[in-house]
UniProtKB/TrEMBL annotation:
Species name: Methylorubrum extorquens DSM 13060
Designated name of the protein: Two component transcriptional regulator, LuxR family
UniProt GO MF annotations: DNA binding
UniProt entry keywords in alphabetical sequence: DNA-binding, Phosphoprotein, Transcription, Transcription regulation, Two-component regulatory system
UniProt lineage: Bacteria, Pseudomonadati, Pseudomonadota, Alphaproteobacteria, Hyphomicrobiales
InterPro entries recorded: CheY-like_superfamily, Sig_transdc_resp-reg_C-effctor, Sig_transdc_resp-reg_receiver, Tscrpt_reg_LuxR_C, WH-like_DNA-bd_sf
Annotated positions of the 4-aspartylphosphate modification: D54
Pfam family, one: Response_reg
Residues covered by the Response regulatory domain: 5-119
CDD domains xref list: LuxR_C_like, REC_FixJ
């Protein structure tokens, strides 16, 4: 059986090399591209594997690449790499159908897990996922204020910004954020956003 193929797109050569080394060591077949246009030009059928792309790139960014791939009929599962503060873009990508996003700098094991899950999903986010159903049950336990804080968290708001909007102190926002994380059992903001999008919360 051929190793799983990952198409990696990032305009940063050092990042491409780092990701390629990690994936190659983990047994993946890796193809590297310096831009989304390069991927589109070289992508041939039959397609296999998944795509790992940076969300912020010159010319064709990750979201534009995603739209171009889908409009051309390519349905490979896609994982987005995001920088700090790109949560709103990640949410938009997941609404379009991206499998996941991972925030830079990321842990190697977290990246491998995200790619393996994307390959297993085959690009389809099923609402019958028991983990998703469990998350939705936990969402239902949030208080009104906790849901308000969650709503702002998944759109990229900082504690200071959320505090201003809700007219509470940043410290109080942090307390509510901790309660949201505990009640939903999300291990990170990335995980919280991912499940909130899949659950249709945003």
């Amino acid at each position: 059986m051929a190793p799983a193929l990952v198409h990696v797109i990032d305009d940063d050569p050092a990042m491409r090399d780092s990701v390629a080394f990690l994936l190659d060591t983990a047994g993946f077949d890796v193809r590297l591209y310096e831009a989304g246009t390069a991927l589109l030009a070289r992508l041939t059928r039959p397609l296999r594997g998944c795509i790992l792309t940076d969300i912020r790139m010159p010319d064709l960014d990750g979201l534009a690449l995603f739209r171009s791939l889908r409009s051309a009929g390519h349905t490979l599962p896609i994982v987005m790499m995001t920088g700090h503060g790109d949560v709103p873009l990640a949410v938009e990508a997941m609404k379009l159908g991206a499998c996941d996003f991972i925030e830079k700098p990321f842990d190697g094991e977290a990246l491998l897990r995200a790619l393996q899950a994307a390959l297993e999903q085959g690009g389809h986010n099923g609402s019958v996922d028991p983990i998703l159903q469990d998350f939705m049950r936990r969402l239902a336990t949030l208080s009104e204020r906790e849901r308000q804080v969650l709503d702002h968290l998944v759109t990229g708001g900082t504690s200071k910004e959320i505090g201003r909007r809700l007219r509470i102190s940043p410290r109080t926002v942090e307390i509510y954020r901790a309660k949201v994380m505990a009640k939903t059992r999300a291990g990170s903001l990335q995980e919280l956003v991912r499940w909130a999008v899949l659950a249709g919360f945003v």
